[in-house]
Amino acid sequence: MRREQSLNPNPERQIDMKFMLAMNHRGNGAPQILSWAKDDLKGHINYMKQFATKLGKQGELVAAEGLAFPNEAKLVKANPDGTPNTDGVFPETKEFLVGYWIVEVETVKRAYEIAAEASMAPGQQGKPLHLDIEVRQVMSAPPPVE
Known about the structure:
The chain is 22% helix and 27% strand. With 146 residues, the chain is an alpha+beta fold. The protein has a single domain (17-137), classed as 2-Layer Sandwich (Alpha-Beta Plaits). The longest helix has 20 residues, at 38-57.
């Protein structure tokens, strides 16, 4: 299993918390981004690249990835013998994860600020999308078992 490596250029800086910022697509079918004009799509992608680069230079970015659409997803469950059993694609999905960032920051407030900036990614005609970005702390250890 691969362990995440921090992109923090300043290893002396104390990092207290790690968060996952998840960008979801709401609605049925393919994301509307597929119908955008070429320049709108380019503007959106450039924003996301510059955003990730900036977070990396600030020492806050651990990982960032866009994900394939749900029509390429498989649900996997082990058969009784432990071999994989795959199920479907899920075109009826109402909401799905399109991408995420893992950030290391000193406060939850900073995680919220980063999420708000991601939320402002441009859409058609460069207008901010005001995307919903889910912010969840990455646990540093499992919860205590009593």
